[in-house]
Amino acid sequence: MAGIETRYLYPPADIHMRVPDDVRKCVVFLGKEVGVEKVYGGTAFVVGISSKTTPLHFMYLVTAKHCADALDGIDFWVRFNSKSGGVLELKTNSNARWFRHPVDPDHVDVAVLPFLYQPDIDAAYVNLYSFYAKALAPSIGTGDDVFITGLFALAKGTQRNMPIIRMGNIAMMPDDKIPVKKFGEIDCYLIEARSTGGVSGSPVFVRETLVANPSDSQDDVHGVSGKFWLLGLMNGHWDIDPATLNEVTVRGVDAGVNLGIAIVVPAYKIVEVLRHPELVEMRKHIEGEWTASQETSKLDTAFPPNKEKTFTKEDFETALKKVSRKTK
């Protein structure tokens, strides 16, 4: 399973950028049974955390909390592409636990699910070092290109997952919280892009705009595209009554015209969920188990060391049970 690498690309600023294939490969589709039909209605993406003390990588599915809420207590499916062709529809039982924000779950639309990678899964993962943070990419701001990769429910693909790419720009990086439906006032970014049903939980990437050959003359300033970063994940958008389109004050409605401004939960909020105390403890436990399995005898003996132990699916599930508990 390959990780998404940050990279530099240097075409002129007025040339549209092609989206790297890796950012389409990191997304999967979430589905559940509706009557007798299996319906896919949400997007998740794969995030990997590299262990600092072992060669292990911890994999998580990340989606919007409101998508995970719709799957709580029921069997559901995660639809991956397969390396051998076609798709893998992995069924997850009703005991699966999505982890929410450890301190403020009512105002953070993020949920993560630990999962065990299978060799036939054809997916890339997003590393934490690709998460946007102002200290890492101070040049990112309003106007920078963003792209959303996720499920287009009307054309998800039959033989393979076919994520759609929606393009836009950062419209606002607010200093204040923004009121949104179901979550109250939240920390978020606003982007100029259309959101539709199915892209909730999708990753949102941003391209850094750099300045090449800067000088005192504005005519000599040449913008180029730099690294791409995970800006955050999709929460939703605003619909408004068509009759109020030209009014100064508009109100959101449950069904209306898409205002074209989408709401993005910041990447640092995903990090806060990944640092949930139980997830941290789980990673430490698995690292400890792996380290113990690698230890060999240091005594002066002619006997060969014990055979190394492979960390199995059963070991992972045992660790998960030790540090996880079902919540109401």
Describe the protein in words.
This protein has helices at residues 22-25, 65-69, 267-274, 277-294, 313-323, and strands at 2-4, 27-34, 37-50, 57-63, 76-81, 87-92, 111-114, 124-127, 145-150, 164-172, 178-180, 184-186, 189-192, 203-212, 222-240, 257-266. The protein has 328 residues and is mainly beta. It folds into two domains: 8-275, Trypsin-like serine proteases (Thrombin, subunit H, Beta Barrel), CATH 2.40.10.10; 279-323, no CATH class. Strands 1, 2, 3, 4, 5, 6, 7 and 8 form an eight-stranded mixed β-sheet that branches. The chain has a six-stranded antiparallel β-barrel with strand order 9-10-13-16-15-14. A hairpin with a 3-residue loop joins strand 11 and strand 12. The two termini are 34 Å apart. 34% of the residues are buried. Residues 6-15, 216-224, 239-258, 307-311 and 323-328 have low confidence and may be disordered.
Properties at a glance:
328 residues; mainly beta; Thrombin, subunit H; 6-stranded antiparallel barrel; 16 strands; disordered C terminus
| Low-confidence blocks of residues | 6-15, 216-224, 239-258, 307-311, 323-328
Order of helices and strands: EHEEEHEEEEEEEEEEEEHHH
Q: Might you state the CATH topology name of the largest domain? A: Thrombin, subunit H
Number of strands: 16
Helix content: 10-25%
Summary, kept brief:
With 328 residues, this protein is mainly beta.
Give the topology, please.
Elements: E1 2-4, H1 22-25, E2 27-34, E3 37-50, E4 57-63, H2 65-69, E5 76-81, E6 87-92, E7 111-114, E8 124-127, E9 145-150, E10 164-172, E11 178-180, E12 184-186, E13 189-192, E14 203-212, E15 222-240, E16 257-266, H3 267-274, H4 277-294, H5 313-323
Parallel strand pairs: 1-8, 3-8
Antiparallel strand pairs: 2-3, 2-5, 3-4, 4-7, 5-6, 9-10, 9-14, 10-13, 11-12, 13-16, 14-15, 15-16
Helix pairs in contact: 4-5
